[in-house]
Amino acid sequence: MKFQMPQFIDVEDKIFGPFTLKQFIYLAGGASVAVVATQFLGIFFGLLVASPIVILALALAFYKINNRPFIYTLESAFKYITKSRLYIWQKKESEETKEGIGKGEKFSSLIVPNLSESKLKDMNWNLDVKKKEDEQIGR
């Protein structure tokens, strides 16, 4: 039994002509603010007051930053402004490193495993035996 997999799931449906529901709401909100402002304040002052809101509505509806809608940028900016931030400028040294530096000793955090001569011989023998077995089998 075959099933059709949905494709283009990240594309929003166009509901109001060429606009999605979100775009239509942003544009309708901006237009309604402009109409109300011009009715109460007159044409000049109404457009002067409503122009930043209309520009914001246009940006929310159409402008994308890094292929992401502008609303996500506004959300990130709002979170950045409102939340507290923690700045750490210097790394605190542990007491071991302070003591080692004070005594003139070198402190190394790198741990190198010790291989004794017998372990090296065993590893070499294993490699030689495996190599010869592979040759005999014909690999």
Short description:
The chain has helices at 21-41, 43-62, 70-82, 95-102, 117-137, and strands at 64-65, 68-69. The protein has 139 residues and is an all-alpha fold. Helix 1 (21-41) runs antiparallel to helix 2 (43-62).
Indicate the low-confidence ranges by residue numbers.
none
Strand content range: under 5%
- Return the structural class: mainly alpha
Could you give the order of the helices and strands? HHEEHHH
What order do the strands of the largest sheet run in, or round the barrel if closed?
1-2
- The number of helical segments is 5
Largest sheet geometry: 2 strands, antiparallel
CA distance, first residue to last residue: 44 Å
Number of strands: 2
Helix content: 55-70%
Computed over alpha carbons, the radius of gyration is 34 Å
What is the 3D form? elongated
What's the multimeric state? single chain
**Average residue pLDDT:** 81
List the helices and strands and how they pair.
Elements: H1 21-41, H2 43-62, E1 64-65, E2 68-69, H3 70-82, H4 95-102, H5 117-137
Antiparallel strand pairs: 1-2
Helix pairs in contact: 1-2
Can you walk through the features of this model?
There is one protein chain. With 139 residues, the protein is an all-alpha fold. The protein has a domain at 21-82. It is built from 5 helices and 2 strands. It has helices at residues 21-41, 43-62, 70-82, 95-102, 117-137, and strands at residues 64-65, 68-69. The protein has a two-stranded antiparallel ribbon.
Descriptive labels:
elongated, mainly alpha, 5 helices, single chain, two-stranded antiparallel sheet, 139 residues
